[in-house]
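pasting for ref
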Amino acid sequence: MARGGPGAATGPAGPSVAARRAVAAAFVAAIALAWVVSSGRVPAYMLPPPADVGAAMWSLVATPLRAVHLAATLAHIGASIAIAFVGGAVLAFAAHYARWSAPAIHRRLGPFLSAFSGIGWTLLGVIWFGVSSFTVVFTIVAVLLPFALVNLREGLLALDAELLEMGSSFGRRRGATFRLLVLPSLLPFAAATLRIMFGVAWKVTLTAELFGGGRGLGYVINVARQDYDTATLFAVIAFIIVVVTLADRLVFGPLERRTARQFGGRA
């Protein structure tokens, strides 16, 4: 005979959604409380008060000079994701359909790009192209390219061979088969790739702009570091956390789930 009722423990399925949200909210509240208490006991240049950080976050979008740097960072990220995704797709398709190129792409180029660090690409970009937006985009693309290559390769390997064979048996031309069967099957993997690349791009962008860019949030951080403007440092970090979290929850997460549900992907 079963014990307990609606208020009983959830059992093997684990805690409920409400319980997990309550724990997460309590954790954030504890961090905020510790911040408020600690900020009054240490110098502001070490731990600025939350009000100062909030004002600095507002200045990122309300102050024209800093808004220009924010727009530059968004442009760097958007351009880099687009270039890296297209480049990775071209390489993945080339290795899949021109099998003779697969060893060079997957066994040589892919591991090399994955192993080389972002700071290394930044320093090389500064030497080759100088301090410029091109250096920043070059660095981000070099770091993001293997993510697109590996994920889209897995998507191509996961294609349903029987489905493709059935499409060919019905007289579909290769172009039509690619457009109607291959591309839709890759959409879940493409959505997962974009989701990963967006998060990684923010991490790489700050470093690239810090050393190789003349504008952007990385440049703002560099100036703030020199001026001991810790509130601005915290503001940029908090802004990035908010943007990445909202984009993941509202855009990339739903997009990935929808494509996986509609096209049966296993991304």
